[in-house]
Amino acid sequence: MENKLTISSSPHIVSNTTTSHIMRDVIIALIPATLGALYFFRMGAVVVIVPAILAAVAAEAIFQKMSGRKVTVGDLSAVVTGLLLALHLPPNAPWWLTVVGSLFAIIVVKQLFGGIGHNFMNPALAARAVLLASWPVQMTSWVNPGADAVSSATPLGILSEQGKEAAMAAASLKDLFMGNVGGCVGETSVVLLLIGGAYLLYRGVITYIIPAYYMGTVAILTLLLGGFDFSYMLFHLFAGGLVIGAVFMATDYSTSPVTQKGQIVYAVGCGVLTTVIRLYGGYPEGVSYSIILMNVATPLIERYTTPKVFGEVAK
Amino acid sequence: MQLFTFKGGIHPPHRKKQTENMPATKAKPPGVVYIPLLQHIGAPCVPVVSKGEYVKVGQKIGEAQGFVSIPVHSSVSGTVQALKEMPLQGGTKVLCVVIENDFKDELHESVVPKGDLTGLSREELVGIIKEAGIAGMGGAAFPTHVKLSPPEEKNVDVVVLNGAECEPYLTADHRLMLETPEDVIEGARAIMKALGISKAYIGIEDNKKDVLKGMTGEIMPDEDINIVLLKTKYPQGAEKQLIYACTGRMVPSGGLPMDVGVVVNNVATAAQIARTIKTGMPSIERITTVTGGAVNSPQNLIVRIGTLYSELIEECGGFKEEPAKVISGGPMMGLAQSSVQIPVTKGTSGILCLTKAEAKIPESENCIRCGRCFTVCPVNLQPLYISAHSLKYDYKKAEEYKAMDCIECGSCSFICPSKRPLLQSIRVAKREIIASRRKQNR
Ligand code: SF4
Ligand code: SF4
Fold first, then answer.
1. Residue B318 falls within a domain, yes or no?
2. Which residues take part in binding [4Fe-4S] cluster 2 (chain B) (predicted)?
3. Three-class DSSP category at B179
């Protein structure tokens, strides 16, 4: 027995939580929104979601195999990336577009930078941005929810083209909240996304800081800039990808600061950029670009928000 | 009731159920004891007995060398068989006095009660504590008389007794406080007297509420000894965190408790001081929790210093399955042992035998930057960065990220979902930083 005892330095026990548990929680949190997407967009959603996930997982496995690395699809992070990308695409987007997006997200943004944790941009958002730049037509062909996919515009699209009154007339706040409007596959239903967010908070996967400061900043700015019109503020909170962005994308571990102060700076930055792009920019929707920009700023933010260690204040 | 605590920390599984309701029982006296001549931080002692000599219980067998050193006494009566080197908990070899027990338990003449606390002067007290070979019994084993002799310029006004016992599995201090609260409180009084102060805090985690009644019952109404109920959280018993939770004082980075007027002692150390005063018996035994999934019937044993781990495990019914790891101390900060043929020392708070399943540490993966290690660090460090720099051999950067402030509690390694060897790599960085500081000073 003697020489069979393992010698290693402390600690000798570790928690049961692993990366795959965390990713599984994120997937669970996305289930309401995914089911909602299937309900609102039917086959259109299926054609986007299924290929996205399959392509993401396959891309990760094949790339890791070919480059002689350990295959880590078991950690479920590729599933999360594929699903998040799908939820950020228009329903009825052609399946090949989805596959190209997943390949780009996994191979270029994630694996070429060293795999999970080493990418400096959110893979799903980066892929979406590339798709939008390369295939603008397919990426902005919106449909109304329901069985008969009638093409339409998103509420934010109407806002940027026809102005505030038209936009607010086009969709009731209730429809926006429930998700009964045109938009990306999984971003339309505020309530379903918030249920997922509550689950993530409860499980300790995310903290309230990034979502609260992000959405809070957008709320305050749109209230100020919209002439203290409360329902206009709610319109901005509920429309487009703000909730999914604030809860699921901005909170991405790899690309957001780890320090609390840093997270506040980062989230407020996201909120300011989103508002500015929505109100003054050329695109109707600013969430993706705002988060990507702040992703890039994350290392800088972290450098300037290093916390004081215990006892350092007392000196 | 308000619970006191610190920022950060983790909630490892307690695993105390097996032993917390088991009264501390005297272990069978061993046939042979192996008493190390170095059981404390500081200089080793020199043997004052030789082979073939007859020694009695409580007789001094090793004499202290210098100020930061304490003597060692025999825990049995019998004949000195040999003086030989043996590996200890830390793996280093130490000279041990091997004594064959004659089971007569003859007391040495020097073991006589020291009188009433009120009649003893401060100097006398410190002298008694040093002569009795008392060192911190929480694990670090720092000679107690040194702590009780602070330099003039440090204005110590508070003593904090550590009864947190925040390590999973261990229940030795718990049983001690439950069974002999009078010794703990009397020990607190002795420490206060030795320091010439009148204020004490005893920090106890709230998973040991059952000790409160007995402990508070021992305190006189006019006495300034406060029991502080602490939130059950690891590492609640870490010195600086404990001081903060009890007194609100923050020990400066790189500083000592004395810098904020505090001296910390373990409750077991305090109880030992009280017993020594009462009976004259030096530090020759202690309560040790023998536990873990690999042990048949875990127990709290009152153990004579110098008993081999193997004998205590035998007394607990032996192994029920082959242990994957044997740890001296708790699972968070204890030392893994390569053998069970090592003797109990004054600092052995637990002997933990983990099964393969309990000791399993999954392979480490990429850091996902979840920030958990940073959230739990009681010192507010960013373990992920210190570790990353250390793994890249960039120890300068690791130092900039305050690697030296790490208290090695292991919370970060415990919590990491990617099972990164965080503390392990931070330790490497600390070693390198110390080495390079030395070089610069030369
Ligand atoms: S860095 Fe050090 S002090 Fe902080 S949690 Fe890790 S081991 Fe504990
Ligand atoms: S806990 Fe582990 S995975 Fe999370 S940030 Fe720290 S090192 Fe990275």
1. no
2. 377, 406, 409, 412
3. helix
Residues B154 and B268 in one domain: yes
Domain membership of residue B338 (yes or no) is: no
B366 and A258 within 8 Å at the Cβ level: the answer is no
The predicted pLDDT at position A1 comes to: 47
Which of B233, B236, B381, B386 for a ligand 1 pocket mutation test, highest count of atoms within 8 Å of Cβ?
A: B381
Q: What is the DSSP string of A17-50?
A: --HHHHHHHHHHHHHHHHHHHHHHHTHHHHHHHH
Tell whether B320 is covered by a domain: no
**Ranges under pLDDT 70 in chain B:** 1-2, 442
Residues of chain A with Cβ-Cβ distance to B408 below 8 Å are 10
Note whether B322 contacts A: Cβ–Cβ < 8 A.
yes
Cβ within 8 Å of B, A 17-36: 17-19, 21-22
Measure B235 CA to ligand 1 centroid, in angstroms.
Answer: 10
The count of domains in chain B is: 2
CB contact under 8 A, B332 and A314: no
Q: Is there a single domain that holds both residue B377 and residue B274?
A: no
Contact A258 B371 (CB under 8 A): yes
A256's enclosing H/E stretch is: none
Among candidate residues B249, B279, B309, the one where a domain is terminated: B279
Q: What is the reported pLDDT for A314?
A: 43
Contacts of B381 in chain A (CB under 8 A): 309
Name the average pLDDT for chain A.
91
> Pick from A5, A9, A19: which is nearest to B417 by CB?
A19
Asked if A79 and A27 count as a contact pair (C-beta separation under 8 A), the reply is yes
**How far, in Å, CA of B68 to CA of A237, rounded?**
66
Q: Across all residues in chain B, what is the average pLDDT?
A: 93
pLDDT over 90 at A170, yes or no = no
Direct distance between the N- and C-terminal alpha carbons of chain A, in angstroms, rounded to an integer: 51
Pairing mode of beta strands B78-87, B93-101: antiparallel
- In chain B, which residues have their Cβ closer than 8 Å to the Cβ of A3? 338
Q: How far is B396 from chain A (nearest CA, A)?
A: 16
Last residue of a domain, which of B262, B279, B296? B279
Structural domain boundaries enclosing B177: 133-279
**B288 CB-near residues (< 8 Å, 6+ apart):** B172, B300, B301, B303, B312, B344, B348, B349, B350, B351
Which pLDDT does position A137 carry in this prediction? 86
Selected residue of B253, B340, B407 to mutate for chain A interface (largest A Cβ count, 10 A): B253
Spatial distance between the Cα atoms of B57 and B74, rounded to a whole number of angstroms: 5
Ligand 1 neighbour B383 (Cβ under 6 A): yes
Residues B338, A7: C-beta atoms closer than 8 Å = yes
User: Does any domain span residue B294?
Assistant: no
Q: CATH number for the domain including B256?
A: 3.40.50.11540
Q: pLDDT per residue over B188-211, tens digit each?
A: 999 999 999 999 999 999 999 999
**Same domain flag for B273 and B387:** no
For residue B376, the ligand closest to its alpha carbon is 1
Inter-chain residue contact A258 with B10, CB threshold 8 Å: no
Q: Give all strands (DSSP E) within B64-211, no chain letters.
A: 72-73, 78-87, 93-101, 158-163, 200-205
Q: CA A68 from chain center: how many Å?
A: 30
